[in-house]
Amino acid sequence: MVRTMSLLRALISTARMVRHTPLLAAGLPPDDEVLLDAPDDRLAPALVSAALGEYEQAAKVLAATREAAAWEDRDRYVMRLAAFAHGRDGWLAAWLHAAPHDPDALLVRAELAVRRAWESPARAELLRETGPLIDAAADGDPRDPVPWRVALDHARGTHAPHTAFESLWAQAVRRASHHYGCHVAALQYLSAHWYGSHQECFDFAEDAARDALPGSLVRALPVRAAFTRLLSGTPGAVHGDRIDAAADLAITVSARYEAGDPWPAEVRNLLAYVLVERGRWADALEQFRLIGPYATSFPWTSFTDDPLGRFLETRDGVRIQVASTMPLRNRTDRGGPRGHYA
Question: pTM for the complete prediction?
């Protein structure tokens, strides 16, 4: 009898998935329309020009962020340009040759040097050699917090003590107290994987979120702490509650942005992963709808060399999970007062 009931439940669940999974595709772009780390309308021309060996568009875009003190955009653009230069840096070499003291070129150079050093087996030694490049970038514009985000990443890789970290952190927040990139770099340093603990990581993230303005991505920082906790293994009850609270807060932040907005895409990708890990399928599906076509490498590269494939597989899996919990019949399918739900 027990075996028969288990089989019946499995058949009903399968019927639900077959019936509802196609319907749950509404609002989700088709797989072939999903883009990985798609640049926005300002960065895209700079990357196209860089592919042609030209630096002028990149210089124009970064100069505009500096003049407008648009530090969040500046940080993202610097990371993307440095990532591109990692494989094709002729345009950056030409830029530095033409303008060796350009603060924007110096910043991309520093980010690129740190990125390359991180990938080397001799990471700590090579990172120490990049120190003067970071100093030059910081001197380029004393208002700019982005070199200090680079410096925080550098400190993590060179095993800098907490006192050195705190000094760099003070420099960063003096320039931009709610800069998201600097907060993420600090959170990584304070994680249990590096030089802190799960407790320290959560405390830092939750304090920062309380101090941030509504709609600031820093308000979603606790979901980063939740992610690091999930990576380390199954959380206990206390951390499980903090993870769910972090996800709830990130949901409220996500809701302040339009669906398909590329700006919060990385936070939404991260949030979707955390919700999946917590078995919150309906909430995760809503985040995938809000993400639209903007898949991001993080967090998926933490598990695979095919982040886009992992994103699409996870999205499909969430649809199946949600479909399997929906009623087999809708109210409109009921044949009369004796109708019932499966």
Answer: 0.87
DSSP H or E stretch at residue 36: strand 35-36
Can you state the angle between helices 198-211 and 180-189, rounded to 10 degrees? Answer: 160
3-state helix, strand, coil in the chain (%, to 5): 70, 0, 30
**Which residue type does 186 have?**
A
Residue 122's Cβ-count burial label (10 Å; 0-12, 13-18, 19+) is exposed
For residue 67, give every residue at least 6 positions away whose Cβ sits within 8 Å of its Cβ, in sequence order, or none.
none
Give the integer Cα–Cα distance in Å for 261 and 145: 24
Terminal C-alpha separation, the chain: 19
What DSSP character marks residue 23? G
* DSSP states along 213-256: PTT-GGGGHHHHHHHHHHHTS---HHHHHHHHHHHHHHHHHHTT
Quote the CA–CA distance of 60 and 55 in Å, as a whole number: 9
Between 55 and 18, the more confident residue is 55
Q: Tokens 């919700």 appear where? A: 275
8 A C-beta contact, residue 189 and residue 156: yes
Nearest CA-CA partner of 80 in 115, 130, 106 = 115
DSSP 8-state code for residue 266: H
Kindly report, residue by residue over 178-226, the tens digit of the pLDDT. 999 999 999 999 999 999 999 999 999 999 999 999 889 999 999 999 9
Three-state SS at 99: coil
Query: What six digits make up the tokens of 71?
Result: 């530090």
Place of tokens 């639209």: 292
Mean pLDDT of the chain: 90
Contact 228, 192 (CB under 8 A): yes
- Give CB contacts under 8 A, 24+ apart, made by 256-259: 256/214, 256/215, 257/215, 257/290, 259/27, 259/289, 259/290, 259/292
Phi first, then psi, for residue 158 (nearest 5°) are -100, 10
CA gap 96, 100 in Å, rounded: 5
Tell me the domains of the chain and their CATH numbers: 22-38+198-327 (no CATH), 39-189 (1.25.40)
